[in-house]
Write a structure and sequence with these properties.
Blueprint lengths: L2 E3 L5 H12 L4 E2 L6 H6 E2 L1 E2 L5 H15 L2 H7 L1 E4 L3 E6 L3 E5 L4 E3 L6 E3 L2 E6 L6 E3 L2 E5 L2 E5 L6 E5 L4 E3 L2 E15 L4 H20 L4 H17 L3
Helix pairs in contact: 1-3, 5-6
Length: about 230
Amino acid sequence: MLLHIPDVLTAEQVERCRRKLDQSDWVDGRVTAGHQSARAKDNLQLPEDHPVARELGELILTALQDNPLFMAAALPLKVFPPLFNRYQGGQSFGAHIDNAVRQVTGAPHRVRTDLSATLFLAAPDEYDGGELSVEDTYGLHNVKLPAGHMVIYPASSLHHVRPVTRGARLASFFWIQSMVRDDGQRTLLFDLDMAIQRVGSEMPDHPSVIQLTGVYHNLLRRWADV
């Protein structure tokens, strides 16, 4: 499931991120790439242990906890601390698949990467190119979202970032370990959750709301790995 999640950050929060990032020192983005990905990766990145990365990462994690669409779709168990990248001057990231497991720097924790996330921090009209292109069974999806909006998609997907030919593309990226590792099961639960909410808003006293809610939780109980 590839899902656009709007307004993860407010305009004020985006501005705060931009101001902090513009004042920071960037390094070669290949510092966090695996062996194969490093051959395809050409961008700049904020060091993982940089104070700004940690500060803005906490801002994003707090926003995610308050975002019901993200919580319903991802069913997060663990979220890798958000990272930040910058593409400019023709930089791109060739086709690759994200590592299955990520080690949190400076901690004993590992995160299984069930879902990948990109949170856009630059407006689409600020740069040319830079689309996130994700392949799935339904074809190729090109994603370029407003600042503060996010896309999540299965980390097992082949994806790439197209060259940025004007301006600069700023984004945060990270991974989620879900309580439900199977993407098909997560999608069914998400669709059921959305249907329950619609029925509940239109017919709040209908007995089907309780019945369907029970089905949802019994499926989650069967599939959850916590």
